[in-house]
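Researcher: Go.
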Amino acid sequence: MSIRALLSSELLMRRLTSSEKDLLASIEQQLSARRRTVITPDIVEQATHLIRSMTDPRPGLHELVGPVCTTSDIVAWLGISRQGINKAVRTNRILAVQSPTTMWYYPTWQLMANHSVIDDMSEVLGRLRGRVHQLTAATWFQRPLEVLEQTTPAQWMLDGHDLQTVVGAAEAFATAEERRPSPVPLFDPEIQATSL
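Model: Structure:
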């Protein structure tokens, strides 16, 4: 490799973030704690592939479930307390997603112009709660379904179509997930909330 190529490749490298440095330190600690071993090119390739898949850019939460708002926003929009919001989430009247930082976010498609929540949400969420991971459930609402004439469950409900059709679709999805769960989608923890 020429000096020019070496210099240009070094100039293209960026500084590692603190979490990336922590990852490397953890790998070094794991290797140091074990007896010496031969690291073959195949092992390097597999490790590189694993690191690449773990660090590839992930979609934002809004790309998976649509625009979201914070607890403060939904409290102000609905005019009820945080405890009221928590109860509505527990009783399947409001869809919520918890971030890796344990903050709660609420897809805004479920909020109506009259400062209420979409009708019959508990009928649909009740089929999913406890059977499907909350993020998987939230992404399901944004996926066009053949049984709903290629409409998303969220849009189907917003358009006021037959409730039992979407409830049946939720039941079928939950049953399928119980048999063979999908991997929980990963998303970028930097969440962009929509102001209401």
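Model: The beta strands are 68-70, 97-98, 104-107.
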